[in-house]
Amino acid sequence: MVLYPDVQRRAQAEIDLVIGRDQLPAFEDRASLPYIDAVLRETLRWEPVVPLGIPHATTSDDIYDGYFIPKGLLCLAISRDEKKYHDACRFTPERFIDDNGQLTDDNPAHYAFGMGPRICPGRYAADASLWAAIATMLATLNISLAKDDDGNAINFTPEFRTGVTRHPVTFPCSISARSEIHSELVDTLRTAM
Ligand code: HEM
C-alpha cells in the first residue's frame, strides 16, 4: 500500500461504499467486495510468500507452458509469466477484475499453495486470515510513505529476503487511523479479544 497508493484508495472507496465508514467488513461482505479479493489475489501473486515451495524428501517436476520446471519453481514461473500477467512486477489487482467489475476466473491461490498430494493443508485458514487482515487494515488505516523531520517523503526500493518463506526487508512507512471513528472501531475490536 505504501508503494501503490492508488490501490489503497480504490480499496477504501469500495469498502466505504459497500460497508460504510462506521462498521468493519465481515466475512458475509466478502462477495460484495471484489476489489478486496483482487488485492488478496495480487498479494499471493506479486511476491509469493513460499516462492520455492517446501522441499520434500521426494519431489516431482512439472511442465508449464511447454517448459520443464523443477517442482519448487512452478509458483514463481506462473506468477511472473509476462504472457499471463502483463507488467508482472507491478502490483495491479485490476488484472483480476473483468469489465463488469467482477472477479475473473484466474486465482493465484490455485498455485500459490502448491498442488497435488502435498498441497498446503493450511490454505483455507490462510485465505480467510489474509482476507480478514487485508479488509480490516484497509477499512481502518491509512498506510503511506514515512516522512523525515523536514516533512519530505522517504522513498525506498522494496527488498525481499528468501528463506523457507519470502518476506520484505523492514521498510519505513507511516500507519495512522483513517479517522476518529475508525480508531474507535479498532479499540472495540481490541477490547472484544
Ligand atoms: C499465505 C499463506 C501460505 C502460503 C502461501 C502457503 C504455501 C504453501 C506451499 C506452497 C506449500 C508447499 C506445497 C507443496 O509442496 O506442494 C505449503 C505446505 C504446507 N503448509 Fe502452507 N502456506 C500458507 C499458510 C499455511 C498455514 C496458515 C498453515 C497451517 C495452518 C500451513 C501449513 C502447511 C503445511 C503443514 C505444509 C506441508 C504439507 C506437506 O508437506 O504435506 N500453511 N504451504
From TrEMBL:
Q: Which Pfam families match?
A: p450
Q: Which GO terms describe its molecular function?
A: heme binding; iron ion binding; monooxygenase activity; oxidoreductase activity, acting on paired donors, with incorporation or reduction of molecular oxygen
* Spans traversing the lipid bilayer: none
The compartments listed are: Membrane
Q: Kindly list the positions annotated as binding heme.
A: 120
Major localisation: membrane
Keywords in alphabetical order, please. Answer: Heme, Iron, Membrane, Metal-binding, Monooxygenase, Oxidoreductase, Transmembrane, Transmembrane helix
Q: Which GO terms describe its cellular component?
A: membrane
Membrane-topology annotation of the record: Single-pass membrane protein
- What cofactor(s) does the depicted protein rely on? heme
Which pathway does it operate in?
A: Secondary metabolite biosynthesis
Q: Give the Gene3D superfamilies listed for this entry.
A: Cytochrome P450
The protein's matches in PANTHER family, at most eight in alphabetical order, are given as: CYTOCHROME P450 MONOOXYGENASE ALNH-RELATED, P450, PUTATIVE (EUROFUNG)-RELATED-RELATED
What family is this protein classified in?
Answer: Belongs to the cytochrome P450 family.
Supply the name of the protein.
Cytochrome P450
Organism from which the protein derives: Rhizopogon vinicolor AM-OR11-026
